[in-house]
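Action item from last week, closing it out:
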Amino acid sequence: MGSTAEAVVIGGGVMGCSIIYNLAARGLTNSVLLERDLLGSGSTGRSSGVVRMHYSNEVHAHMAWQSLDIFQNFDQIIGGDCGLTQTGFLIFTGDEDLPAFHANVAMQQECGIQTSIISREEAQEIAPGFYLDDCAAIAYEPVSGYADPSGTAAAYSARARDMGATVMLQSPATGIEVAGGKVVAVTTRDRRIETPAVVVATGPWSRRFLLQHGIDLPLEATRHEVIHLRRPMDKLPYHPGGADIANLVYFRPESTDLTLVGNGNMEDVVEDPELFASRPTQRFIQDVWTRLARRIPVMAEAEYTTGYAGLYTSTPDSHPIMDRVEGIDGLYICTGFSGHGFKLSPMVGVLMAELMLDGKATTIDISTLRMSRFREGKLNRPRYGFKVLV
């Protein structure tokens, strides 16, 4: 069976859904999204959903801040519900990272981000019961929080379909056809779609898929664990979200009485994204729980409820690849978000649409995310050892 499309997006996570929506909103309504399983069934469905602005580089900071504006006005701008819940977000650091911490907050403020260094006394009012004596500095983002990754992907997909785009589930792409240095078609098991433009947004499957087309990029699928703890509500009925650089842990409230907890330094490389342990290990549960209790002592009395593991698509500098492929006209890559993806996803779609339709992303300069940086040795260097904050 054959068909034609103005563009094909491969991958139905929140990135692919944001991209196809933004392409349709820019007029490419005869576009197709191919998803190997169900929308959000890969990394998106196992994202922790944190929405915060604290980064050590301008491109991520700008993308996160402008994405927040879309999250805050999602129903008016996109249509539907992204599930944004504003909890406020605290970032704690010790003496070792203090110079970088102050520089980062200053940079974020220059980007327009609503953030500031606050005193321990102010932090204690925001987060009663937290242990703060070891904090060299604390930053606070009052409008940050968390949202629903799967719901966001579904909303983007639904609006794209409303504009005429086609979303094909359980339709894994098997290959991209190239002739004369140009993309000409995408194939699935039972379909050939003629198209001049393809975006590969396949998350943990990206390296495998790109290798079969002769594109070798340093992408790794890495496994990351998250747990949910039931708080002792009589002692800690609520708390803001936070990232603890000193203890290498991040957390946020979940539902009415749960706390979601993840880490910033433990990961395992996964050779096959189809096969990985989807539950947290006992070692992880004990380790991350202990680290959380250093910052929130009463959480030592919490009750373990459940947990899960998901996959990041990691690069050597923990920055994504958002670029056109040199030598293949019409082929684009959007992958390698290294755990940052969801909070950036609204602007990712905007920028990829600009790159494809205007020849260059103009709202934000994404030249530092080019694929050639690995060959050039011009990697983006993180300032923290805490991976989720680079």
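Closing note: The chain has ten helices and 22 strands.
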